[in-house]
Design brief:
The chain is an all-alpha fold and about 110 residues long. The chain has helices at about 5-25, 30-65, 70-80, 105-110.
Length: about 110
């Protein structure tokens, strides 16, 4: 039973190719890397969709302001904190309510 040199060389090349293929597929650019890239692509697509919705909402707000001059004036006053002469502006704080209630007016007068 004699094995020819060509068959032996072919078998060695086949084994080396298979080993190389397994090594490449298991490496950082192989199947695991492809799955990680796919996950990143999905995440970026979701972020892109959210940003597109935000852009559409801002465009709609801009269109509403351009259609209504009073809304534009209010927006300018709000953003630039401008006040017309003779008008009153009340500034409210958006803070958490404290647990203790402020003293009642009758309690202050008794001191």
């Amino acid at each position: 039973m004699r094995i020819s040199f060509g068959k032996l060389a072919f078998a060695c090349v086949l084994i080396a190719g298979t080993a190389y293929g397994i090594t490449v597929l298991r490496g950082p650019h192989g199947i695991g890397g492809l799955a990680e890239k796919r996950r990143q692509i999905d995440q970026l697509e979701k972020e892109n969709e959210a940003l597109n919705k935000e852009i559409a909402a801002k465009r709609e707000h801009l269109a509403d302001i351009q259609r209504d001059p009073q809304a534009l004036e209010l927006e300018i006053e709000k953003k630039l904190k401008l006040v017309k002469p003779g008008s009153k502006v009340y500034i409210l704080q958006d803070g958490a309510k404290s647990d203790t209630a402020p003293p009642s007016p009758s309690a202050r007068g008794s001191r």
